[in-house]
Design brief:
Structural class: mainly beta
Shape: globular
Number of strands: 30
Distance between the termini: 31 Å
Radius of gyration: 19 Å
Largest sheet: 6 strands, mixed
Keywords: Signal
CATH topology: Methylamine Dehydrogenase, Chain H
Oligomer: single chain
Helix content: under 10%
Strand content: over 45%
Signal peptide: 1-25
CATH architecture: 7 Propeller
Number of domains: 1
Number of helices: 0
Length: 357
């Protein structure tokens, strides 16, 4: 069994008042969470990215990208029907889809672990861009407004921040490992515990270290989209030991003026780059508590500032260990799509897709 953890962070900025009201959500468990397994039975490997798009009066097209040990593949379905398998003919050996966005039922954009941006139109895949470093996260605002953020880790190259306007790529910044874009004039990026905001002309930096109990921490994810004017969230993984891991996981929310600490989960590390809006100004995000342990899917409810652990049978209840790699909101609704993997009886990985109705 082998999983590859892709380091993804997303970032943000704006002036921060460390004295702003800090509230911590209570963590509870959900026994009947409403999540159900909808993937193909017996498919090996791991689901690394999911996405969906609503069209034609409420119909939904869903896409799940899997890695089976050699190359990535894609599964698609419409209207809760059966999943259809499709190859990605431009994929390279060892390449994984790390982020994807469906623009239309026949149009999908995807970023890969080998530093490439791919586009599927109809049944045809093309390469929109190729970089000499790993892509950690991407924001696909449209086919002509794409942002990618990449690692600056040793051996992974130094991608920085790049923007595609539909015709050409432009490098906007160096040194930022991951990020998320709301628009061309509101882009967020992160490095360590420093959050940065791009307003179309310059970057503004803010440290969130004052919210944390240790210097050994990393902004794992910043989520900026999916619910109109929703506030951005930053998810920070604190590491009890220099080698990483341990927790806690801290959730920060930007209220338009300052960052506020709104929730804390006691253990584990946030899965880099994985988060989705809940349709009610809240957030879904997965947490890993280490090899051989079940994954955790957390829901932050903004109305009452509650943090709930949701149950995904076969993932969050797998005693042999599991992972949740990706989650996506379906339209602007409260429905969600999630992907990951569980460990089979022989130690093999089994690809999993889950749906929240």
């Amino acid at each position: 069994m082998a999983r590859k953890m892709l380091k993804v962070v997303a970032g943000a900025a704006a002036l921060l008042s460390l004295g702003a009201g800090v509230a911590n959500a209570a963590t509870t468990s959900a026994t009947a969470s409403g999540w159900q397994s909808v993937g193909r039975s017996g498919v090996g490997g791991e689901v690394t990215a999911v996405t969906s798009v609503m069209y034609s009066g409420g119909k939904v097209a869903e896409f799940a990208f899997a890695f089976h040990g050699t190359k990535p593949s894609m599964y698609t379905r419409s209207g809760n029907g059966s999943w259809a398998f499709d190859t990605i003919n431009v994929a390279k050996t060892g390449e994984r889809i790390v982020s994807a966005k469906a623009i239309a039922p026949n149009e999908v954009l995807a970023a890969t672990s080998l530093g490439r941006v791919l586009k599927r139109t109809g049944q045809t895949w093309t390469v929109l861009g190729a970089f000499g470093a790993e892509i950690g996260s991407a924001s696909f605002l449209s086919a002509s407004n794409v942002w990618v953020f990449g690692t600056s880790a040793k051996g992974g190259g130094n991608l920085g921040v790049w923007h595609f306007n539909g015709k050409a790529w432009t490098r906007v910044a160096k040194g930022y490992a991951n990020g998320s874009a709301q628009s061309s004039k509101s882009v967020w990026a992160a490095s360590g515990t420093t959050l940065e905001h791009w307003n179309g002309a310059k970057w503004t930096a803010t440290s969130v270290a004052g919210f944390l109990s240790t210097r050994n921490a990393t902004v794992s994810t910043i989520f900026t989209g999916g619910c109109g004017g929703c506030a951005p969230f930053a998810i920070v993984s604190e590491h009890a030991k220099p080698a990483g891991g341990g927790g806690p996981v801290v959730v920060l929310e930007y209220n338009g003026h300052a960052w506020v600490k709104v929730a804390t989960y006691a253990s584990g590390s946030a899965v880099p780059g994985a988060a989705a809006a809940d349709g009610a100004a809240g957030l879904w995000f997965p947490v890993s508590e280490g090899a051989g342990k079940p994954a955790r899917l957390l829901h932050y409810g903004n109305a009452h500032r509650t943090l709930t652990v949701a149950t995904l049978p076969g993932l969050t209840t797998d005693p042999a260990g599991s992972a949740i790699s990706s989650i996506a909101q379906i339209g602007a609704s409260t429905r969600e799509l999630a992907g990951g993997d569980a460990v089979g009886a022989r130690g093999n990985l089994i690809a999993k897709i889950y749906y929240l109705s």
